Amino acid sequence: MSRSVRVVWDDALIAYDFGPGHPLAPVRVELTMALARELGVLDAVEVTGCAPATDDELALVHKRDYIEAVKRVSATGRPDLAHGLGTDDNPAFAGVHEASALITGASLAAARAVWTGEAEHAVNVAGGLHHAMAAAASGFCVYNDPAVAIGWLLAQGASRIAYVDVDVHHGDGVQALFYDDPRVLTISLHESPRTLFPGTGFPEERGAEGTAVNVALPAGCGDSGWLRAFHAVVPPLLREFAPEILVTQHGCDSHALDPLAHLMLSLDGQRAAYAALHELAHETAGGRWVVTGGGGYELVQVVPRAWTHLIAEVSGHPLAPATATPEAWRRLVRERTRQTPPLSLTDGRDPEFSDFSAGYDPADPIDRAIMATRKAVFPFHGLDPLP
Predict the structure, then answer these.
(1) Which of the residues 83, 97, 130, 131 is marked catalytic?
(2) 131 belongs to the catalytic site
(3) Structural domain tally of the chain?
(4) What is the edge-to-edge ordering of all strands in the sheet holding 121-124?
(5) Could you tell me the CATH number of the domain that includes residue 276?
(6) Which pathway does this chain act in (predicted)?
């Protein structure tokens, strides 16, 4: 399915490190790349490095005074609470600008490769820092790398970009940065803001001409409900919008084991979402697909397996769910984390779902969430909210 795939990686990307005990531990990305390498996933792609984003590139979405503030914190390690740096979520640390700019540079390299045709798909699993705002850090995110990549694509002349965010947390930063720009369709499927940070992402947040789309799912939603909601909202909107390029954020914190949220997806359900987005990239965006990581705080059992599946799916060579994890990787897990590694790439689930077209059940909270989103935005796109 995929003609050419690029994975952007540099070992220096793990320098984005808020310190011991912080949920966003860089070992999750280190273990992902190690697992993908051991399983031969990286043999099917081109792995390239990246350069840090420049100030001008960061300024495509961030305020210049904010960039300067991050640089000051980076040089001194001292907090700047006015810009969200030095909080429990975003501790200040020396080198924060350089680490954040490199992650953003990796997403820019992915976007550049796809836009120029050097690659059909490109991946930065270290990216997906979707909460950062124009002038403030938020939710473990200092620079908003997917938004910078979208801003760069717009500057190159792209006129229709779709962004789909499957992180358990609302993609508030990307939505806010393009809220009034009809060239950018942002779709976020997330746990209800009534029960989870950042407290935004209601269906009524519709943006310019219905181009901000929010599916707020109830706590406890599992594979079947999540996939039902995804297929009821995402494919019809992408088909109607017909983006020139698809950008996706793949936070895997929707998993049942994630310690920070309350959805109940399995690894197998997440893998089904990756496959669906791959198909939609080819169907609606001519195959042009920029992929980032995102949240995910179960560092051993979930993130490395989920994103190894993601890279494999993007490469066009998906892995069988029952694939065993290599012994060399299991040793690395024990050495780096002292935890017991998973033995295979599956949770043993069969992620089936009933399609929304079969009918709407007003007594079902997931169906009510689906209908709230469809009523809020489908008419803007000439689509019927009813099944």
Answers:
(1) 131
(2) yes
(3) 1
(4) 46-48, 5-8, 121-124, 289-292, 245-249, 161-165, 184-191, 212-217
(5) 3.40.800.20
(6) Ketone degradation; acetoin degradation
